């Protein structure tokens, strides 16, 4: 079954309509948009020099999550540290969506005839 069918799809749609869209409207009304919508004629450049120019181990391990609640906790911390605390109320719902989207792979005892197995 596709992860975009049934209950998960309805939950995602409800999250979008009831939480994400209103949060976006509130953000747009409260401050400047999250994306560039006008050109600043006084800006010398829009380029921002990165502090880290290579990937670190923490880039791969910091955001691994064990479940939806762990994801909600980590995304809340991430948004708070970056000055986007107004997004934090979305975290619990995103965590629940993560749990619903989780796919558990079932291991089969039989090996496909198209796979070469060496014993």
What characteristic shape results from the CA principal axes?
A: extended
- Measured on Cα atoms, how large is the radius of gyration? 21 Å
Kindly state the percentage of residues in helix.
40-55%
Q: Which structural class best describes the helix and strand composition? A: mainly alpha
Strand proportion, as a percent range, falls in: under 5%
What's the β-strand tally? 0
Elements, N to C (H/E)? HHHH
Number of helices: 4
| Major beta sheet summary | none
Overall pLDDT, averaged? 82
Uncertain spans, ≥5 residues at pLDDT below 50?
none
Tell me the distance between the termini. Answer: 34 Å
Summarize the structure.
By secondary structure, the chain is mainly alpha-helical. Helices cover 46% and strands 0% of the residues.
